[in-house]
Structure formats: structure tokens, C-alpha cells
Predict the 3D structure of the following.
Amino acid sequence: MSDSIPVVLTIAGSDSGGGAGIQADLKTFQAFACFGTTAITAITCQNTTGVSGVQAVDPEIVAGQLHDVLIDFPIAAAKTGMLFSAPIIRAIQHTLKQDAALSRDTKHISDKLRLVVDPVMVASSGDRLLQRDAEEALIAFMRECAALITPNLPEAEVILNKSISDVDEAALELYSLTGACVLIKGGHRLAERTSSTESIDVFYDGRDIHHISRPVLSGRNTHGTGCTLSAAIAAELARGTEMHAAIESARDYLHGAMQHAPGLGKGIGPLNHMWRDSI
């Protein structure tokens, strides 16, 4: 394998249904012509109707996976998804600080790894994927390591410990809290609040607020949207794309993956990560 191919790392849980988690991440990396590596934090028994079981991976094994990947592969960017517990989060934070040179620069490309943190708390089905006592550890992790955080509206409200009425203001508050660039995924909820036909995300890069909108897509095939978006952003960063442009490209990819979803399962269906190859 040549070092010329961008290498990306996902630190997340396994979804047996293949729609979210590391499965969605690896499909997304492949779609962006990147080589994907993994550190698995939890194994879930899951399909489109919900999560029936979760087995966390021992924090030492999570750290071991991370260490072995980081010392051998030229990781250009990484993302996190389901982290599940405070001990796992602390193990990841320690290992990243020890084995990786992290960058929080959004404008300039360097050999340092840039980390996208998707603060996964609850599955599409409503099942909890982060223990409540791990929320403070997650905030500390974002403050210490993240270049970009990508909470949805409910996750942003948990992190800020308040109801959000002004999403732009919330993005500034999250930046102040974590020091990381912020992408609040408003999607349908934000569209409903503004009576818009557009799905709207709010991006703050530390200087300017950007509203990123795409036409609202109706339907049940939304499983793994957050995982897919953060993986696509990480892949674009690994390819050398500037942060704002990476988000725009990732949003286009996600829109297509939803638009061409295969309609699988009895519940909240998965996306079509290979949609570009099928049109």
C-alpha cells in the first residue's frame, strides 16, 4: 500500500446492521478513495429497528488498537463516533496525546492529525449510546483533542446543558467551551423551527458563521447520517481539503447517499454509501 493514498482512522462502535458506526465509516472512506483504519469501542446488537445489546470493549484494548494503528500508519485525519463510557474516552484521549501529533488548525494543511468528534449520545432508534456519567469526560476530550465537533441539536443542548433557541449563538458557545470548530447539525429539526424547505447546518470556524443548507429529504432512510457525515469530513480533511470546503463536500455526499438509499430493513433504513458508483 503506497503512502500516497490518504489514510483515515475511525474510533467508534460496531453496528451489526451495517448502517452506522465503523461499518458506515469504512464505506464512506472507500467512497472518498481513502484507506480506512479502525479502533472499535463497543459491539452493538443492532438493526434498523433498534439496539438490543451493547458490549463495551475493554479500555486497554481500545488503547491498544489506537496505539498499533498510530505507530504504523500515516493517519492524516480521524473521527470518533460512539465512545460509550468515561474510561474508554480517557483511554482514547491519553493514547492520542501520546502517539499522535494533533492539529486544530482549520486553514492550513500539515502532517498533524486533525480529529473530528461526532459526540454520539443516542441512536436513531432512541437507544442510548453514551453513559450519562461520561458526558463530562466527552466535553474534556473535545476541549483537549478536537479540531471539529459535529453535534446534532439535541446533543448540543446536552453539552451546553440548556435548551437552544438561537443556533448561531449556540455554535459560538460550543466554540468557547471546547476551542474546536463547531458544526451543529440542525437538519429537519432546524428546518421545522424556521418553516424552511431546507435542511440547515450551522458551521462556526472561530471567525465566521456559515449556514450550510440542502433540500429537505423526506423518508425513513436516515440511519447512520451523523456517522456518514463526520466520516466524509474526515476523509476530505485527509485528502487535504480545507475545513469549510470539506464540510460542503461531505454534505453533498450525504444528501446523495440519502437520496439513493436502498430501502432496506423494517425500521429506520440505511444509506447508499456507494451511490456515486450507481448513477
User: Anything to note?
Assistant: The beta strands are 7-15, 35-47, 50-56, 75-80, 114-117, 148-149, 181-186, 198-204, 209-215. The longest strand covers residues 35-47. The chain has one domain: 7-277. The chain has nine helices and nine strands.
